């Protein structure tokens, strides 16, 4: 940890900024007297590295607790305060895991039992390594559809077609599902490896580049993919499989073409199930304050539908597609197929980023609500380990589920002990009860998926809200949604991130530049355009950019400075003597240095005159007062193209550059500032820097910015200090500052 402290020494004219490191102290003294900044370092590099590499018992204990957080909070677990809430919450979430695990496995194009496996192992791993107390790890619709797009692409039905009885063509379901499980496991282990590596190198901040409009637009588009993928189970049709851009549109068109072939029994089952699920979920929402526990309608529907299907023979009589065989017990761990890595590496990275983005956004929401901290880097490691370990037990990629997390939090869950209890319920189901659901119609699972998409479809309400608040974010949302719909999940995510970064670059490329004025009676200096009560100090221009100055906007900063300080319609006319040749300029002052430091011919609006023709000054514009002395010295006067304002040289004698918004400086920025000092100095305008952070001063020193022509006496802590210094230097009294208005 680095701590900064600004304190005053015994001498009230000396301020000391202390930056304290674990084993070293760095002192930066800012002397008000003389307005100089003097940096002194008492850093011993050898001691620093020795301290970093030293191992001690407390440091080892801290490292272990940071990597395995359960060792920190479980010994202090309060049974009296947390046990009841975690028990009720764990049972509620476990009941939700059963139907959602089987239903979301269909989205991943895997047998339902693998959804139960995914609801078991990763939850236990996250219990050990996670830092969020309320999120529920396991299957999720968006992750399932992303995995399903990969499994169907690499293992389509056409690759497993064989000859059936009576010369019919039949798909080898067992071989297809086995290969799809291998693909899903390979994808999952690679996803986990990516997440672990990003977490180890402290790359958790990468999710910051996925803005909330991008994530919400992407999940909404993914919900549309989920919805379309489940229509075939609702109508009992078998559309062709499409991949690549516009695959969603092609699939929807194909389903509409097959509507005349709809299986009426499956449609009836779907509609009845949808009606019951929607009605009871609305009751849960309306009476959640009065109900001790939400009605587990999903589990009830699954049990009832399984009983009816079994005793009425819906599979044999009406050809309703059912879940089929669900093996009891747990499978032995298997190593994922590494030969598939090259085919899924791009998808794995996309799944890793999306899964982490959903996980950390929901985790931070609950952490903020309940007053604890979620470590973004540790969450990456925890999620990566959940995926990596789970892949050895035939699990596919996981993240947190919004619906289950809300249930876990609202039913009184306080810690991840609730996750362990939910895993026990899933384990009992897999070992003893799973085979009882073999006659469950797949249409029931599809309706459960549909109903759980309600929260994501509500995100369409973001559109009118963003229209009122921020149209750039609205554009990001719409582009993300449309690219996800039209270009599929993987390519859509890449396009969305690229467009979001372009909007960020555009915003930094178009910062707000302002001239500051003093707020009467204070030492505050605010934008004169935004605050009417401010007044400029006569002869002093205070210029500020709203963002960091870097290579992308340095030229715009220079142009804005010229426009703000000198005025759009003003030009400086000067004659510079260089090697017996006079250069006459009619441009803004910062452009003069290019001519005054060059011995080559420059183009318009610069004119070269030989010193032999010094007497012929009539060739200049007759309405200007430009000229020069016969001894070769420079004479400067102002030339106005219109009546607006005055030129820089007429009344501005000092310019203050407020760099308080600048967090770093690069080579281009340093050169730009150096050129600004040089160019304005040639027309007798003094420049000063204020508000520089310590890191900015260090970078300027390293770049050799300070010199005889640009001394550190031009550097001040605040704008007001610089103003006082300028007034004192020019022999003006502080009374020139604007007084409060009566």
From TrEMBL:
Stored Gene3D superfamilies: STAS domain
Residue ranges annotated as transmembrane are 104-129, 183-205, 267-287, 299-320, 340-362, 474-506
Localization recorded for this chain is: Membrane
Spell out the InterPro entries in the cross-references. S04_transporter_CS (IPR018045), SLC26A/SulP_dom (IPR011547), SLC26A/SulP_fam (IPR001902), STAS_dom (IPR002645), STAS_dom_sf (IPR036513)
Arranged from A to Z, the UniProt key words for this protein are: Membrane, Transmembrane, Transmembrane helix
STAS domain location: 530-726
Q: Which Pfam families match?
A: STAS, Sulfate_transp
What is this protein's record name?
Solute carrier family 26 member 6, like 2
Origin organism is Scophthalmus maximus (Turbot)
């Amino acid at each position: 940890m680095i701590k900064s402290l600004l304190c005053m020494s015994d001498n009230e004219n000396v301020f000391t900024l202390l930056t304290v490191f674990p084993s070293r102290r760095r002192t930066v003294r800012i002397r008000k007297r003389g307005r100089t900044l003097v940096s002194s370092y008492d850093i011993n590099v050898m001691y620093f590295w020795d301290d970093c590499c030293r191992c001690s018992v407390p440091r080892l204990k801290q490292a272990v607790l940071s990597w395995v957080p359960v060792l920190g909070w479980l010994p202090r677990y309060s049974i009296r305060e947390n046990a009841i809430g975690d028990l009720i919450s764990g049972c509620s979430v476990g009941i939700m895991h059963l139907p959602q695990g089987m239903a979301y496995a269909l989205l991943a194009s895997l047998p339902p039992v693998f959804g139960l496996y995914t609801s078991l192992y990763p939850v236990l791993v996250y219990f050990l390594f996670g830092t969020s107390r309320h999120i529920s790890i396991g299957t999720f619709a968006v992750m399932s559809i992303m995995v399903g797009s990969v499994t169907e692409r690499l293992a389509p039905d056409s690759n497993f077609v064989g000859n059936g009885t009576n010369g019919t063509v039949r798909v080898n379901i067992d071989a297809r599902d086995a290969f799809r499980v291998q693909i899903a496991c390979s994808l999952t282990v690679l996803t986990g490896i990516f997440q672990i590596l990003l977490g180890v190198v402290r790359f958790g901040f990468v999710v910051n580049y996925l803005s909330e409009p991008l994530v919400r637009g992407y999940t909404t588009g993914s919900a549309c993919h989920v919805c379309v993928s489940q229509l075939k189970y609702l109508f009992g049709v078998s559309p062709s499989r499409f991949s690549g851009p516009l695959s969603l549109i092609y699939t929807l068109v194909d389903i509409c073409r097959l509507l005349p072939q709809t299986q009426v029994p499956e449609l009836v089952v779907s509609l009845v199930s949808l009606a019951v699920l929607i009605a009871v979920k609305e009751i849960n929402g309306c009476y959640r304050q009065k109900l001790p526990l939400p009605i587990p309608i999903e589990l009830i529907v699954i049990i009832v539908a399984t009983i009816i299907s079994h005793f009425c023979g819906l599979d044999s009589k009406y050809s309703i597609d059912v879940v089929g065989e669900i093996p009891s017990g747990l499978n032995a761990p298997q190593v994922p197929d590494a030969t598939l890595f090259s085919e899924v590496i791009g998808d794995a990275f996309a799944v890793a980023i999306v899964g982490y983005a959903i996980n950390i956004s929901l985790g931070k929401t609950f952490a903020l609500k309940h007053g604890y901290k979620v470590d973004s880097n540790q969450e990456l490691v925890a999620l990566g380990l959940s995926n990596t370990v789970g892949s050895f037990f035939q699990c596919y990629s996981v993240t947190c589920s919004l619906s289950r997390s809300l249930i876990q939090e609202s039913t009184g869950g306080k810690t991840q002990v609730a996750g362990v209890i939910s895993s026990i319920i899933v384990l009992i189901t897999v070992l003893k009860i799973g085979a009882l659901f073999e006659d469950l119609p797949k249409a029931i699972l599809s309706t459960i998926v549909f109903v759980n998409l309600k929260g994501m479809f509500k995100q369409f309400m973001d559109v009118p809200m963003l229209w009122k608040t921020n149209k750039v974010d609205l554009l990001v949302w719409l582009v993300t949604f449309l690219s996800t719909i039209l270009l599929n999940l993987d390519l859509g995510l890449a396009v969305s991130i690229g467009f979001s970064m372009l909007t960020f670059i555009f915003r930094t490329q178009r910062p707000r530049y302002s001239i500051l004025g003093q707020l009467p009676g204070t030492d505050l200096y605010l934008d004169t355009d935004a605050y009417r009560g401010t007044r400029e100090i006569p002869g002093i221009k205070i210029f500020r950019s709203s963002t960091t100055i870097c290579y992308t906007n340095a030229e715009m900063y220079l142009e804005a400075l010229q426009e703000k300080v000198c005025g759009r319609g003003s030009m400086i006319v000067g004659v510079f003597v260089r090697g017996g040749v006079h250069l006459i300029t009619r441009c803004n002052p910062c452009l003069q240095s290019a001519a005054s430091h060059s011995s080559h011919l420059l183009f318009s609006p610069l004119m070269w005159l030989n010193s032999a023709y010094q007497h012929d000054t009539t060739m200049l514009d007759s309405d200007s007062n430009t000229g020069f002395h016969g001894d070769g010295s420079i004479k400067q006067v102002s030339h106005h193209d219109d009546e607006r304002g005055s030129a820089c040289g007429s009344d501005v004698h000092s310019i203050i550059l407020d760099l308080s918004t600048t967090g770093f400086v690069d080579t281009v920025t340093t050169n730009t500032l150096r050129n600004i000092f040089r160019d304005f100095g040639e027309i007798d305008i003094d420049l000063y820097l204020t508000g520089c952070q310590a890191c900015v001063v260090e970078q300027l020193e390293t770049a050799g910015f300070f010199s005889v022509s640009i001394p550190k006496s031009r550097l001040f802590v605040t704008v007001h200090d610089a103003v006082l210094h300028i007034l004192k230097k020019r022999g003006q009294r502080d009374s020139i500052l604007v007084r409060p208005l009566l």
